[in-house]
Amino acid sequence: MNIFCKLLVIILFINAFTIKAQKNYPQNYFRNPLNIPMQLAANFGAVRSNHFHMGLDLRTNSQENLSVLAAADGYVSRIKVERYGFGNAVYITHPNGYTTLYAHLNKYYDKLDEFVKEKQYKDEKWEQDITFSPGQFPVTKGQLIALSGNTGGSAGPHLHFEIRDTKTEECINPLLFGFNIPDSIAPIISGLYWYDRRFSTYEPGANGIAVKKTGSTYTTDIVQVSSPEISLAIKAVDKANQGFNLGIYHAELRMDDQVIYSFSIDKVSYDDTRYINGCIDYPKFIKDKMSIQHLSSLPGMKLKNYSLPDLNGIINLKDENVHTIEIVLQDVNGNTSRLKTKVKFNKTSDQTSPTNKMVKANEGKTVTTENAEINFSKAAVYDAVNFQMSEKSNTNADGVSNTIVLQSPYIPVHDYYTLKIRPNRKLTNEEKGKVVVLLDYGSDTNVVQGKWNGDRMESEFNRLGTATLLLDQSVPSVSPGWKEGALINSSTLRLSGKTKIGDIISFRAELDGKWLRFARMKDDFVYIFDEKCPKASGLHTLKVTTINTAGNTNTQTFTFQR
C-alpha cells in the first residue's frame, strides 16, 4: 500500500470514528444554557487533581449573575448547596433519558430559591441535597433557572455544565451533542515520553523526548531505549479556538502500522473519575504541574469505556531493529494532529530488583514500622510501588507521635488505605478524645479525627505524604467584619473562621435566639440580609457556636444595629 492510500485509510477511520461517536447521542436537542455564545474554559475529560473534569466550564466574561437557562424541557429533579464541589447546583431531568447539571450558581430562580430557603430554615441547616418529583418544578427549554456565580470549588466566575445518563448517572461528553462551538485548531503536541515497563512507570519514571513540528506533522529524533518493554505518553493540549488549554479527546498509538492503543473520553462516572491518576503521569502532574497522558494501560487502571481492553499499549521490543511509531490525536470536531517517530532498543544491563516492600496493583499489602502500620487494599495502586515507610522525630509542638513518612506525595493511591499510629507517650482518656491525625501531602494538609484501636489511632486517607498525631486543645473562633454594636448598612454580614488545627466542622448562628442562615464561602460565613433581620430593627445579638475537627466547641456573642 503506498503512502497516499495509507493516509486515506487513516483519515477515513478517524472521520468514521467521530461521526459514530456523535450519532450515539441526540444532536441539537439541548440549547446553550447561557444567552452569550458558548466559550470553553475547560472541556470534558480535562485533567484535574484526582479526577477528570466531568463537564464543560462555560465562560461568563468574568461576570457573575448571568442568566442560566434550562437546556431543554424537563423538571428540576435535584438541587445541592455545599461549601466546596458544585456550590449551588441545579439538576434538570429531561424526557429523553438525560439529566443536565448547572453548577457554581449564585441564586436559583425565585420560586425554587424560596423553597430552598424555607427548607434551610426548617432544617436549621445551610447545606442541602434535595430531590424533587416531576410535578414540583417543571421547566421549559430556555426558561430562567438560576443566576451564574462563583460558589463552591470554583476559582473564578463561570458556569459548569454537565449532561448525564439519567439511569446510570454517567457523565457524557457534552460536545457529542452537537453544540455550536467553532473549532478549527488541531491538538498541539509539546512532548513525548517513554517508560521502562519491566517494573513500574514510577521507577525510574519519565524519559523526555524533544518534539519538533515539521510542516503539519510532529516528529522527534529516533527514540533510543534501554528496556525491551516500554510504553509511551504524550504531552498535548487542545486550544479549540478558545485560548484555554483543553484536554485531549481521542488518541491512538500505532507501531509498525498496527494500532496498539487507543483511548476516547466519551463518558465517565463519578465512581470512576479518580482513575484519572492511572491515565496520567501523576508524579509529573504533582511535581511540575504537567499534564502527560499515558498511551498505555497501567495494571490497576480499571476505568470503563476509556480504552479498548485488548490493546494495552505495551511495546515489546524483541529485537534491536528500528520500529515506526505514529501517534494520532483528535478533538471532537475531527481536527487531527500526528506525531511520527522511530524507536530502537539498545540492550544494557538488567534492571535492579525491587525490595520486598513492593506494593503491586491488584494485590493487597501491609507494611509496618515500630509504631505504625499501613494496610493497602487490592485496588490501592495503579502501578507497582517500591513502597518506603519510616519514622522520624516530630517537630510539631502539638505532636504526640513520631512523624510517619509514607513514601511520598508524588505516588497516587486509588482508594482509602488504613493507617494506625501509636502515640509516643501515655495519654489520658480526656487527651485521647482530642487527638487528630494530620496528613501533609505537600500542596495541602488533611486533618481527621480517627478512632482508637487498642493503643493506636486508626484513620483512613487516599493520598500519601507524612502523617502524625496531634493533640488539639485549642478552640475555633470567628471574627466579625464590623465593630461591636456598629450600625450595618451593607447587604451582608461576614464572619471569618479560624482554627489552629483542622477545620471548623460545625457552625451555628442565632439572631436574637433564632437560627439564622449563613452560607459557607471557603473559610468565611456570610449572611445576606432578608426579612429575618429588616432595616431599622434596632440592636441585635448574634450568638455563634463553632466546633472544630477535634470536637472542641466555642460560643461567641456579637452585637450590631440594623
From TrEMBL:
GO terms for molecular function: metalloendopeptidase activity. It comes from the Bacteria. Residues 52-120, 133-167 form the M23ase beta-sheet core domain. CDD domains: M23_peptidase. It holds the Pfam family Peptidase_M23. InterPro entries: Cell_wall_metabolism_enzyme, Dup_hybrid_motif, M23ase_b-sheet_dom. This is M23 family metallopeptidase. The lineage of its organism: Bacteria, Pseudomonadati, Bacteroidota, Flavobacteriia, Flavobacteriales.
